[in-house]
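Quick start: load a record and inspect it. Here is High affinity choline transporter 1:
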Amino acid sequence: MTIHVEGLVAIALFYLLILVVGIWAAWKNKHSGEAEGIDRSETIMVGGRDIGLFVGGFTMTATWVGGGYINGTAEYVYLPDYGLAWAQAPFGYALSLVVGGLFFAKPMRSRGYVTMLDPFQQLYGKRMGGLLFIPALMGEIFWSAAILSALGATLSVIVDINIKMSVCISALIAIFYTLVGGLYSVAYTDVVQLFCIFVGLWISVPFALINPAVSDITVSAVKQVYQSPWRGSINKNDTWVWIDNFCLLMLGGIPWQVYFQRVLSASSATYAQVLSFLAAFGCLVMAVPSVLIGAIGASTDWNRTSYGAVAPKDKDQADMILPIVLQHLCPPFVSFFGLGAVSAAVMSSADSSILSASSMFARNIYQLAFRQSASDRELVWVMRVTIFVFGGLATLMALVTGTVYGLWYLSSDLVYVIIFPQLLSVLFIKGTNTYGSVAAYLFGLVLRIGGGEPYLRLPPFIYYPGWTIEQRIHHSTGQMENIVVQKFPFKTISMLASFLGNVAFSYLAKYLFESGKISHKYDFLDAVVSKHSGEIMDKTTLVTRGNNIGLSEMAPVKPRLSVTLAAAFTRRDTLPKETVEEEEESSADSSHHDDE
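Running the structure step on this input writes:
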């Protein structure tokens, strides 16, 4: 095995830069939020809610512009049967950020939530919050594992070093600075990483374009040169599949903790919206070099390059077209700089997902479900441990499982069909309750799993209209297999069924219990009859006035701060006046006793 010393030096310098920036950000903001009385654990999760437009715009863009984004976009543009027409991620995720900014960012930020799961636990209870944590956690962990796996493959192509070593080192660096600085380290390193991605890829494109083996990409876009035109096309039979996938990206890209972590860290609700719109523009801009690299790959006579006579698509290496173009069509110093860009993209996504998963666990599972009286110091340590555990789990999966991409596809689908309709209901539909939420969860789960997942060799047990059997080469075994292909937009239909099921079963349960058709004693979830649900109300008092639902009087985390669930879940100005006065009196009494 040949070790490229220049490449290793370039990567080492880049990783050192990222590590230094992460540690500097943690040191710079170590006292952030103390003057305002914000707990250290909340500072780690949402950065003291003082992230400005510049850093916020970069870190929000880096939420989606990761290794999967730039590699995947280049791959789809390059593949003969797909092309630019099927490279949906840039426009899908950009529209996702626009929709999120228009409709979801303002209500989430203005109510002062700390994680995406807060509104679910507030309305549906801690057990339902725990159920919704499962697909959210799966999405974050499998996403991290998938992009770490992609990084290992990329590094092995250009630098020719051991895949496992490169994955472990990259993961350890991302885990370390996330452990030290939380969201501040993640956000500041995102600025550096996004800059490196932009510069690294744009430096590579001109060198690749002028390579003698590359034909005019404007010609190969519409005419067959070495393969079918890279512009691509959508067959009539695949129209519904295209629409289904696009809706998955556009709407399924919203209910992710990595997105709402940025929204909730913004200094105001308006800033949260502006950050979403800036990131949408950033996603489109960052996709341009990836599209061009995919087009260059489709316009190359590989027989005239050091890669060899057989094109990457024929070697089943289309997913690595971006590093292959950097390696074989650019000078060595350019390809190593581009490699740094790819590494940056991966780390900028991995650190975000690991922090998001640990934030949801520490707050929504450990604190709100089991240990409401947990101290701030205790929560900080729970977060540190889970950052390490979830990061290690993602790394392990990247190293040992060959189906990490299939698990990521399935879990992202579950986020779309289960969490998105629930988020829609909890924020915008009055009257939904825990019974509707459980029914919606089951509807979405059964209808999506029923459609099967070819990547995992999971056969369908629901055959939707228009299904066909196709022969395809399996990605891991290389054997020809007969698989069932669903041409019906069953993911979006599953999402709509889940949403309608939530509304229908919520109102049905409400009618049956309130009309007396079912005895009140059978309201075992305390979701309709009981005004003070034991499920939601553990050590709290539920205050319901008009449209405002707030939780207050949680056992204080620190006597001097008197942290309440009202402070955690809602803005004080949305609470009833008498509730605020009661809190102020109780706070005054507490401070009086402390003084004595």
